[in-house]
Amino acid sequence: MNFYWQCFKLALVGLAVVNLLPTKVYSAPKIKVRELVVASAAGQLNFVPPPPPADIGIPGDRTGAGRRGCLANHHDSVENKQLTALVPITKAATGLEVVWGLTTVEHPTFWFYVPYRAQDVHSARFVLRTADNQLVYQTSVSLPNKPGVISLTLPTTVSLEVTKGYHWYFNIYCAQGKPPTAIVHGGVQRRTITPALASQLAQATPQQRAELYFANGFWFDAVTTLGQLHYHNPGNMALAQNWTDVLRFVGLDAIASEPIASCCDLMQQVRRD
Prior knowledge:
With 273 residues, the protein is an alpha+beta fold. It is built from five helices and eleven strands.
């Protein structure tokens, strides 16, 4: 193996994220977490999962149904993988495991593994709601022509407010007029960064920015930076290994080696209650 794992227990995660909050601090007990250290030619990726806020609400679901639902008429020999959200599962203060992550940006990018081809499904839909279930945004998503990892970025017309909780859903529909066959969903929260981290990010290379985001617990920003690097540099084995190692660390071994598809754009379609 050309990478090294170092896992550290008893990290005081609550202290690690206090300085990231602008005005509001969520109290949380000391919990045991794992810290990721992936060695690479460019540096190290250290990820300490921050604790979710106490009012996280719905815990989420990182994997949806298996492939068979939309592939009843598809006779090729395919591996039985599931619709999957590329988000960590983190333990909340209550002991509940939740699908949740942090971002620093107004318009974050969400990553999913889709085990279907566009012709295998009727439609796909992305939905964003507030923590109290108010609709913020929903839109149809065009899928690629073969299974793979896709990324969906919120349009500039939809902005996350700082410290406000949001819940996202990604649904796959196999047939018109039927309930979704596969659903993944989870939480996201935007937080501001310290002036020191902002200065570091401004001077960093893309690889260094990924390292900084991971080290400070901003999963969505980190995985987006690393995923874009991996996609645009397919021949860089160190970046490919980092991408694989990071997904494996958060329990996504089944899709760690899946290709990143060259899609998708969220349609510029906003609906608000």
